[in-house]
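> forwarded from #structure-qc
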């Protein structure tokens, strides 16, 4: 696939990735009752790394030590973010887990500013404020009460922001397919170490349903979605990528409500609207509204 084609598909790839991830929240909530978290993550990232390593074997001729440490850092950050987010999911609802994770869209523009001196625009700041407001409305339940799971999820949002920033920084001038394979492999190694530490490897086997979930998570939510994220980020500025990635949250709540994992509340819909408005603000800077005001009116 040519460079120009990848540039055109970059943002649709990110949105499709968030749609896939949105479908996993309520599935994970049930599966974590049967499967140890560390084993679940180890399985999905090992299979994903193997699939991509075989699919893009021709790219390996560009391999050098620079790829190894970059992929290692990206993988370690991804391991930390996924582990903290999924432990948080055990003590909160799928919808709140999805939305609190989305705080990375607020953090990324400023984190990237610190790393690469790319100053966020006023539109980035406005989009971040709208996103935070949306998260607040979704989490409101007669009062703003945070559980331990909510706090862990917020921490995972910061870790995802670090990962997004690392992908944007490290993919410059590098083959994104090699980096993605190495990232998955590093994440898998961390997860296997975690599974050994928690004694989470299922020596007695797993229920058939759990294996189907593991395959879905490994192939769709990891191999496809995370590859789409990395490719999309390579050709999208970090602030826009972070806002598009935050669509995972409304998709997560929508799937959770659609499949009966939780009930919708009126303020939840307002939160949806504000998140959508934040994405529109980041992507268009409301230029279409300013153009409409500047157009001369024809006399009758």
């Amino acid at each position: 696939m040519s460079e120009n084609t990848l540039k055109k598909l970059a943002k649709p790839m990110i949105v499709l990735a968030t749609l896939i991830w949105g479908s996993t929240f309520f599935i994970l909530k049930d599966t974590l009752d049967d499967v140890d978290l560390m084993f679940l993550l180890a399985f999905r990232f090992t299979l994903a790394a193997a699939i991509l390593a075989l699919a893009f074997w021709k790219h390996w001729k560009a391999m050098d030590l620079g790829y190894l440490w970059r992929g290692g850092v990206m993988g370690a950050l991804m391991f930390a973010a996924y582990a903290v987010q999924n432990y948080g999911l055990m003590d909160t609802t799928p919808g709140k887990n999805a939305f609190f994770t989305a705080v990375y869209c607020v953090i990324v523009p400023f984190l990237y500013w610190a790393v690469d001196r790319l100053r966020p625009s006023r539109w980035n700041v406005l989009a971040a404020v709208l996103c935070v407001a949306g998260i607040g409305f979704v989490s409101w339940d007669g009062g703003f009460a945070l559980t331990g799971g909510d706090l862990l999820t917020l921490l995972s949002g910061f870790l995802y922001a670090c990962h997004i920033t690392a992908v944007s920084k490290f993919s410059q001038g590098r083959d994104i397919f090699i980096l993605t394979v190495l990232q998955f492999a590093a994440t898998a190694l961390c997860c296997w170490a975690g599974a050994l530490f928690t004694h989470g490897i299922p020596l007695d086997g797993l229920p058939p349903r759990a294996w189907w979930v593991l395959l879905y998570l490994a192939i769709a939510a990891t191999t496809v979605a995370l590859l789409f994220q990395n490719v999309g980020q390579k050709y999208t500025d970090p602030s826009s990528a972070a806002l598009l990635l935050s669509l995972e949250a409304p998709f997560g709540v929508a799937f959770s409500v659609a499949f009966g994992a939780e009930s919708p509340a009126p303020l939840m819909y307002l939160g949806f609207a504000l998140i959508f408005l934040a994405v529109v603000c980041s992507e268009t800077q409301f230029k279409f509204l300013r153009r409409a005001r500047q157009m001369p009116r024809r006399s009758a």
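QC bot note: The two ends are 52 Å apart (CA to CA). The chain has one domain: 3-294.
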